[in-house]
Every structure is written in structure tokens, then in C-alpha cells.
Amino acid sequence: MVASLVRMLHLNADPQSSIADASNQNTAEAPIWKVLIFDSFCRDIVSTVLRVNDLRDNGVTVHMLMEAQRSPIPDVPAIYFARPIPENIKRITDDISRDLYELYYVNFSSSLPRTLLEEFAIQTTASGTSHQVAQIYDQYLDFLCPEENMFSLHFTNTFETIHNPAMSDTAMSALIDKIVSGLFSVLLTLKTVPTICAPRGNAAEMVATRLDAKLREHIMNAKHNLFAETDNVAAQSRRPVLVLLDRDLDLGSMLMHSWTYQALIHDLYDIQLNQVSITQTNDSGQASKKAYDINTNDTFWKNNAMLPFPEVAINIDDASNAFKREADEITRMGGVQSLDEVGNLNMESSTKQLQRAITTLPELTARKANIDMHMNIATSLLDKIKDRQLDVLFQMEDNLARQTKASILEAINDPEKKQEDKLRLFVLYMLAKQGIRQEDIEECESALKAIGCNISPLEYIHRLRSLNQMSASIASPALGSSGGGAGNASHSGDLLGKFSSISNRLAGLTDNSSLGSIFSNVRNLLPTHKQLPVTSIVESAMGGRAHGGGLGAGLRSAATGGGSSSSSAAARMFEDFIHLDPKQARRGNLAGSNANALRGSLASDGATQEAIVFVIGGGNYIEYQNLMEFAQRSTPRKHIVYGSTDIVNASGFLAQLTRLNDNTP
Q1: Which of 27, 300, 434, 592 has CA 20 to 30 A from 193's CA?
Q2: Which residues is 78 bridged to in the sheet?
């Protein structure tokens, strides 16, 4: 996606080619400076992967919302990036008629319908300004890309929308078409035409059949096949499998407490557009909100996002110590006391030393800002962990198979735990314990009500399971096996004690002691590797054998440490999927032997080493990381891209369940 956006910012020319052309024409010629105009949706697309400095590096001096009042900037070209909707067409043609800019490079996030293109032509011709329109491009970029292998269509509250009983068939059809359009853009960006599989009977099947038809029509009938526009032969020939899933398949993963750095941040602070907002309190008790940008090029973030929080804390300490050593060396060479005094370098030092100090300063300053950011985030996470007892909750959920009604009731009645966390724990317990007695459920629900907890989400889950008979399809997160940490339960009480002792060290760069010894007894509390239901199905779709996930009927087997029943459950569920191939002349589901033949042919050419997973109704970083872990430990290593209609944390998902229950008669 970044490459496509950068190309757009270079007026849809290759950045290197445009720079070379400018150099050949005039070596002293300045780059082409532009203004960027976008609507709110496309602003979110850009801001997720590019920052202001990135825009400036690519020749954009000013960026503005299309809806805002804007003054003319003559003799400057303007790049427009907007959704192809009538309101935006009107705004763009109004800007052209008002002669706000010199030339207009118009880019749409998805395909511009012919009716709107004709309206655009009519308006510009009527105002006599059509000669100022330099380009009109369909970019097919109507999705967000927060991580290299992760995307979101940015459709908020999709689970609530799909399950809303007041939703009309027309509105549902429109939503399905929007999802299909977004997935089509993703596939065009990846330059690949996958095979498609999806469960029967829900939104995923509707998306699968319409996407198959759209891809088939484009490949067979389009005069200009956009999927063929690549010099990469391997990219054209590879055939990943696109696995479309409904969120109903696994509600539990949306409510889990996590212990990894990235997932913790999203759970507690809700990562939005790769930005984290944290409320911090100073020594005088004044609260202030600080926003941090998560740069996908941040090496520390890349290396630590999926690691358990204790390991990340140690790595932050190691990074800060390494920084201090280098900073001390630079200041010693320059004859100053700190980096802030580098401007007052001792001119009696050797030229080579001064040159090294001056050259190293920008890199060290950036590293210090990055370390400070991660330290501040980690410190805030630590406060939340202590305040909400997240370590205890995580360990209980990691060993759901060993929990009893008594342990759940004890957690519910614990005044130190937050109501939302108690509700999440009980929902996970209820989903995991197949055959749980109704009187036990009612007793726990009564305990939640007694402490003032809103159990509307729980009531809606009951209703959903009853209406759709989902007891065999709504799965819990994988249940803990005997080796998952139950034997370490005695350490749970003192885990926060160990954490509290590192709080001050995370907050500053002055303590030289190592954090390794503090976490030496915590490492055996790190999460075990267990596959979530989505990962088990994806493994089946890629031709492997699902294991360890705890899916539907296999939950009870997983609870006792066995994995064969859960493996069979995932395999049986996948066998009932519809299988579509847009490149085959035959339209429709490749059932039975045809589906098996399709999978066999894919396995023979190695294409099943790649998969695109898309969940309709919301996804999260826990599921994303579980898929990435599966891909990394596979032999040969697999490549998986994960996407959803939106990336939602547990609080947001509970809010959708609450509104659904309140609005359902």
C-alpha cells in the first residue's frame, strides 16, 4: 500500500523515474511541490502509514480535508484522493470551477462508476475547466493497512450492523457490496487472484459468491486486466487461498485478555490509525493526554510487538542502556555533559571526533525519542496491569480448562477487579465449558448483577446461541493444557510485586541495574502456543492438519489435553465450506471431488503456502498474532495476510453486544 500511495504522490509516476527525469532536464530544478486534498476516509488511509514528514519528503507541502474551507493556492498542482461518491464529485468540480489550484490530479479510492465519471465530465466542460484536469485514476486503495500483513476495511460496528434485526435486505446487500469492493481492492494491490472458501449460510458466503462473480467478470470480460499489470511472474502465477469467515465462528477471541505488547496496547488504549493516546498524570496530580505515533518502520516495534510484555520490558531496558553507552561516548568526545549541550562542542577536540559527534547526533536524538515513547507506553501499561490485575486474569484464561465455578465466582466477587474484566472472564468460561449446568450459569450471572455489572452482552450471546443453534460453532479460545502454566499458579500472586519494582526503571534512563533478574521467575508464566479457532481453520484451508484450537465439539477434548477431536472438528467444518475459483470457466461451488481436486492442485504447485484471511464482523491483534505465529513456525514458512471489516478491542465489541441486546425485541 505504501508504494501505491507514494506513487500517487508523485503524480502516478514511479518515484525514482520522476526524480531521474527532473535531474535530466535541469540538475538545479526543484522538486514538484503539491497540495494534497482528501476526504475523511482517505485521510485515515494515508495517516495510517504516512506521517507529515513522509508527505513532505514526497513533495507535499500542505494537506487539507476536502470538506474544509480552503483558499486559492495559485500555480500549485493539487492531488485529490477521495471516495467515488456524488458529494465528492461535486466538491472537486466546484474547486476546479473556482480555480483554486493550477492543475488537478484526481484519484479515487475505488472504481469510479461511469455515471459519476460522466457527471464529472459534464460539470468541468460546462465551466470550461476540463483542460486543468491532468489525471483521473482509480487507485483501489479503500482499506487501511496498520501492519505489513494486516488490513482493515474501516467499517465500524459491522458485527452490530449485520445482526441488527431492523436491518433491511437492501441495506444488507449494500454492505456486502462494500465489503466485496474493499476485498477487490486488496486483491488488486496484492496482484493476485485467489481461490475462495467460506462457510455456508451467513454473510461470508454472500461475500464469497459476489467476490467470485466480480473477479470472474473482471478477468474474463475486462478489456484491461489489472491483475496482469505486473512484471513479477511469480506474483501472477501464485494462487493463495482466501478464507472468508464470520465473526460468529469465534466470539471468545474478541474478549480475551492478552499478554503481548501490541495486543495489550490495543486492548487498553485502542490503537486507532496507528496512533496510541495515553492519559498520564504528573507529580502534582494533573492529567494530560499524550498521543504516540506507531511507525511501521520502527525496528523496536517490529521486533517486540508480538512478544510478551515482560520480555518487552527487558528489551526496553537493554535498548536504554545501549543508548546511554553511545550517548556517553559522544558527549565524552565532544567535551560536554549531555546531548543537549552538543551545540557547545569543545572545538579543541579532533576534527574526526567532532565530525562523528555531529553526524551521530540526529540518529541518537531519534533513538532517544523512540525509547522514551516505548518507556512511557510500558509504564502506563504497567499501571493498568496493576490496577486491573490483568496478570491474574490472563493466567486464568490461559487455563480455562482448570477453572471451576468456585474460582470464577471468587474472581467475580473480588473488589479489586473491574466489572468489564469479570464479564469477559465469565463469557470465556461459559463458551469454553461445554455442558455447563444452567444453574451454574444463573448463579454466576446473579453474582455479576449483584456487583452492578451490565450483563447485556452476555444476554445477547445466550440469544445468539439459542436462535442460531451455535453451541457447536461459537468456539472459545484454546483451552489450556496441563503444561500451559497451571503448575505455576503459586507465582500468580507475586507477579505484580515483581512488576511494581521495575516501574521507576521503565520511567527513566538513570538506573543501571538489569531487569533480567527481576523477570527470571516470571518467564515460566509466559503464554503457551495454542491455536485459536480461526487459525485451525486456516491451517485446514492451506492443506494442513488443524490442531490444538479447541473448536466447537472438540473443546472438551482440548480441556483434557487431547487435540484429535478439535483437529477433526476444524477439518469437518472446513469440508462443509463452499469452494470457488474465479479463474475456472465453471461458475459456482466446486463441491465434493472437485473441491478436493482444487486443493490437490494448489498443494502441488506450492501456492497453499499463502493465505488471505478475512473476518466479517471485526478482528483484533490477538487473532492476527496467532496467525503470524502459526505462519512462522510452519515448515516451510507460510505467508498469511489477515484482515477484517474493522479492528476492534474488547470494550468496543462488548459495546456492540450491549446495543444489540438493548435493541432486540
Answers
A1: 592
A2: 35, 104
* Contact between 161 and 663 (Cβ < 8 Å): no
Long-range CB contacts (within 8 A, 24+) of 338-342: 339/364, 339/365, 339/368
> Which pTM does this prediction carry?
0.86
Contact 658, 459 (CB under 8 A): no
Nearest residue to 306 (alpha-carbon basis) of 261, 368, 338: 261
Reported as a single tens digit per residue, the pLDDT across 309-348 is 999 999 999 999 998 888 887 776 655 555 555 455 554 5
Asked if 48 and 144 count as a contact pair (C-beta separation under 8 A), the reply is yes
- Tens of pLDDT, residue by residue over 394-436, are 999 988 888 999 999 999 999 999 999 999 999 999 988 877 8
Q: Is 118 left (phi over 0), alpha (psi -120 to 50) or beta?
A: alpha
d(CA 72, CA 398): 59
Handedness of CA 47, 49, 52, 54 (dihedral sign): negative
Closest among 223, 154, 221, 220 to 185, alpha carbons compared: 154
Q: DSSP code of 39?
A: -
Grid coordinates representing 384? 493498568
Contact 519, 314 (CB under 8 A): yes
Q: Three-state SS for 584?
A: coil
Please, what sign has the CA dihedral across residues 100, 34, 141, 218? positive
pLDDT band at 162 (very low <50, low <70, confident <90, very high): very high
pLDDT confidence tier of residue 555, bands split at 50, 70 and 90 = very low
Rounded Cα gap, residues 27 and 25, in angstroms: 7
**DSSP 8-class letter at 296:** T
Identity at 322, one-letter amino acid code:
A
Angle made by CA atoms 236, 238, 241, in degrees to the nearest 5 = 125
The pLDDT confidence band at residue 304, using thresholds 50, 70 and 90, is very high
Terminal Cα-to-Cα distance of the chain (whole angstroms): 43
**Unique residue bearing C-alpha cell 493497512:** 145
Q: What residues contact residue 575 under an 8 Å CB cut-off, 6+ apart?
A: none
CA 214 to chain centroid: 26
State the DSSP code for 272. Answer: B
Give the list of residues 6+ apart from residue 435 with CB closer than 8 angstroms, or none: 556
Note the pLDDT tens digit of each residue in 214-264: 999 998 876 778 887 655 555 555 689 999 999 998 999 999 999 999 999
The pLDDT of residue 549 is above 70: no
- How does strand 144-147 pair with strand 104-108? unpaired
> Coil, strand or helix: which one is 456?
helix
Q: Is the distance from CB of 556 to CB of 434 less than 8 angstroms?
A: yes
Q: Which long-range contacts (CB under 8 A, 24 or more apart) does 629-638 make?
A: 629/306, 629/529, 630/531, 630/535, 630/538, 630/539, 633/529, 634/544, 636/609, 637/609, 638/542, 638/609, 638/610, 638/611
Average pLDDT, the chain: 81
Q: Quote the CA–CA distance of 625 and 642 in Å, as a whole number.
A: 9
